[in-house]
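Section 3.1 - Work completed
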Amino acid sequence: MLMNTVEQILVIILASALAVFLVLAIVIASQIIRLMKTLQNVADKAQEFVDSAEKTAELVKSAVGQLSVVHFFQNILEMIQKRTKKDDNKGE
């Protein structure tokens, strides 16, 4: 029960195709792994950017809060100054 020539050629072709697909699968898998690592790095950088933006937003919020307090006291001082000017003008 020896294989005839056609069967041998078919086995060689199928083995070669299997080897090519195996090598191709290994290359594709390694490229996918590299892509995933690159995407992870991009995601890490994006997370750092978001964290930085959150910190900046907190600083701006704090500064705006402080400015609103300063603005409040400024308004009070202006009201006092206007009142004292009115009182001075009435006394004259």
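Second construct:
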Amino acid sequence: MPGSLIFCPVVCKKTKLHENDLREFVITLLRNVIVIPNFLISEASLKKAYQICKPIDEKDTVYVASAIECNATLITNDKTLYKGPKEQDFARVKLLEDA
């Protein structure tokens, strides 16, 4: 797989992971990630998420809308995305380190 891990040296250096450990982490992560196409998120969920995110960061609307639509917990490493929705009475947010 030449070129499949072009960012591997950079990521390995920043994370202090060996290439095999990084590869294993990515495989495990991708096995557990659910991708939700935008067209599956209802207008109601998008509107509710926008109202939650507007005072914080509007670019996070789709993430919050996905959690609303799926009745799921949003897991993030972004402290602002963690705190902001909680301040707007949206409690289904966890920090990655606490998940």
